[in-house]
């Protein structure tokens, strides 16, 4: 089990009892989660549905106990939920990419967009851009190096 | 192992964003446990990612909080099933309806489904009563006329 995922112990055979935790989490991270969801689903109405669904789900309960990576946990859950809705309800056809026209400098941003915002797996991105999977992962490193 | 190469491979970023596959996730957790440099890099990276997304945070409309509070009050948090698979307890969402409940502050009310046949019955009965009322009205009218006519005939016969 991932260290960022909710621990099983608190969920096992136990219904959620402290609902106010969700509201407290929402007050603290609602804007962050909404920002993440809007990046994936620009439709505000749908994004708001995802936000409500996210903060109503028990899967966030684990984030409460994950003090160090609470924000990362929220980001991952918000992304997963938004991608799930995008696949279900929104037209998720990404524009075709001509790999010959993609410059080396543009790869990090493009990879982040295709992976985080469009929900594509690294293997699919590698195939689309005609690059290796290792190059796709390296692009994540390059993308965040710009913000350090 | 060259930890610096591993740190720069992008696996840590993929792990934190939740796009790494299962084996990569396990590998990152294992290496973070074994190598302090990787644990530090992971920690620093999580701060960078936090800052990156914090900048792009958008305050949601206040009605969302009201909806969550309403859900909390009605205990409407999604129920989850737990099934044991391979020693791991996994959570499974129950089947969701295929529609989206979009509006919350609307002017409509929800009533029990039995109100529909009740309403139809009341409507049909009201029509039957209306038809009967019209029928008996005209019938009574014709009887009054007939009665008047008979009265006149009787009076005429008495006079003769």
Query: What is the chain-wise order of helices and strands of chain A?
Result: HHHHHHH
Shape annotation of chain A: globular
Give the CATH class of the largest domain in chain A: Mainly Alpha
> Most extensive interface, residues per chain?
A-B, 61 and 51 residues
Radius of gyration of chain A: 17 Å
The number of E-state strands of chain B comes to 2
Order of helices and strands of chain B: HHHHHEEH
- The chain-level structural class of chain B is mainly alpha
What is the CATH topology assignment of the largest domain in chain A?
Answer: Rna Polymerase Sigma Factor, Chain: A
Word description of this protein:
By secondary structure, chain A is an all-alpha fold. Chain A folds into 2 domains: about 20-90, Rna Polymerase Sigma Factor, Chain: A (Orthogonal Bundle), CATH 1.10.1740; about 95-150. Chain A has 7 helices and no strands. Chain A has helices spanning about 20-40, 45-55, 60-65, 70-90, 105-115, 120-130, 135-145. In chain A, helix 1 (about 20-40) crosses helix 4. Residues about 5-20 of chain A have low confidence and may be disordered. By secondary structure, chain B is mainly alpha-helical. Chain B has 2 domains: about 5-55 and about 65-95; about 115-160. Chain B is about 65% helix and about 10% strand. Chain B has helices at about 5, 10-15, 20-35, 35-55, 60-75, 115-160, and strands at about 80-85, 90-95. In chain B, helix 3 crosses helix 4 (about 35-55). Chain B is rod-shaped and about 135 Å long. Chains A and B meet through helix 1, helix 2, helix 4 and helix 7 of A and helix 2, helix 4, helix 5 and strand 2 of B.
Summarize the structure.
The complex is a heterodimer of chains A (148) and B (160). With 148 residues, chain A is an all-alpha fold.
Which terms would index this structure?
heterodimer, A: 148 residues, mainly alpha, Rna Polymerase Sigma Factor, Chain: A, 2 domains, 7 helices, B: 160 residues, two-stranded antiparallel sheet, 6 helices
């Amino acid at each position: 089990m991932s260290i960022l995922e909710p621990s099983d112990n608190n969920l096992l055979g136990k219904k959620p009892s402290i609902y106010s935790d969700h509201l407290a989490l929402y007050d603290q991270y609602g804007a962050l989660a909404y920002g993440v969801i809007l990046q994936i689903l620009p439709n505000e109405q749908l994004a708001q549905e995802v936000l409500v669904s996210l903060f109503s789900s028990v899967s966030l309960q684990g984030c409460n106990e994950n003090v160090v990576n609470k924000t990362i946990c929220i980001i991952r859950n918000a992304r997963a939920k938004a991608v799930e809705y995008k696949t279900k309800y929104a037209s998720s056809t990404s524009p075709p990419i001509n790999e010959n026209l993609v410059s080396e400098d543009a790869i990090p941003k493009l990879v982040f967009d295709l992976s985080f915002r469009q929900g594509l797996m690294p293997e699919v991105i590698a195939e689309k851009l005609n690059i290796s999977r290792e190059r796709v992962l390296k692009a994540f490193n390059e993308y965040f190096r710009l913000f350090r | 192992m060259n930890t610096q190469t591993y740190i720069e491979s992008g696996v840590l970023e993929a792990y934190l964003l939740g796009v790494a596959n299962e084996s990569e996730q396990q590998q990152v957790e294992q290496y973070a446990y074994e190598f302090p440099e990787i644990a530090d890099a992971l920690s620093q990276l999580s701060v960078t990612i936090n800052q990156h997304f914090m900048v792009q945070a958008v305050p949601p409309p206040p009605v969302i909080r009201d909806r969550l509070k309403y859900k909390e009050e009605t205990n409407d948090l999604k129920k989850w099933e737990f099934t044991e698979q391979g020693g791991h307890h996994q959570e499974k969402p129950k089947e969701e309806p295929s529609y989206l409940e979009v509006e919350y502050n609307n002017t409509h009310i929800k009533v029990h489904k039995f109100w529909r046949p009740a309403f139809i019955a009341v409507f049909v009965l009201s029509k039957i009563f209306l038809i009967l009322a019209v029928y008996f009205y005209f019938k009574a009218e014709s009887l009054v006329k007939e009665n008047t006519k008979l009265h006149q005939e009787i009076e005429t016969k008495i006079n003769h």
